[in-house]
Amino acid sequence: QAQLVESGGGLVQAGGSVRLSCVASGRPFSRYDMGWIRQGPGKEREFVAGITWSGSTYYADSVKGRFTISRDNAKNTVYLQIDSLKPEDTAIYYCAADALVVTIRSAYWGQGTQVTVSS
């Protein structure tokens, strides 16, 4: 059974940093694109960042320069480093996996981890 489990969210002050982690199991996720999707309060889900199995990355324009995605295939884990946090980064962050490109329509999702940024 495919499972994605996120961790690392919490309450963070604006300007601070947070590192999210996602451990994947149940599928050969080391060969999948992995990524992060977020949904802020009252907002639609939006793609944030993705990474191919070989380590190539792609980002939403709105987060370039502040968000860094990485992965450790040996640990079946993907990370999202968020720096210079802004209140508008407040959202539930979901880990996602896809055999192709990670989008909001990707097949595999975690339960999400809440990031709240205080001003």
Q: Percent of residues in helical segments?
A: under 10%
Uncertain runs: none
Q: State the secondary-structure class.
A: mainly beta
Helices and strands, in order, run as: EEEEEEEEEEE
Rg over alpha carbons = 13 Å
Summarize this structure as a short list of keywords or feature phrases:
119 residues; mainly beta; seven-stranded mixed sheet; four-stranded antiparallel sheet
Verbal overview:
By secondary structure, this protein is mainly beta. The chain contains no helices and eleven strands. The chain has strands spanning 3-7, 10-13, 18-25, 33-39, 46-51, 57-59, 67-72, 77-82, 91-98, 108-109, 113-118. The model has no long low-confidence stretch (mean pLDDT 96).
Set out the fold topology.
Elements: E1 3-7, E2 10-13, E3 18-25, E4 33-39, E5 46-51, E6 57-59, E7 67-72, E8 77-82, E9 91-98, E10 108-109, E11 113-118
Parallel strand pairs: 2-11
Antiparallel strand pairs: 1-3, 3-8, 4-5, 4-9, 5-6, 7-8, 9-10, 9-11
In short:
The chain is an all-beta fold. It contains no helices and eleven strands.
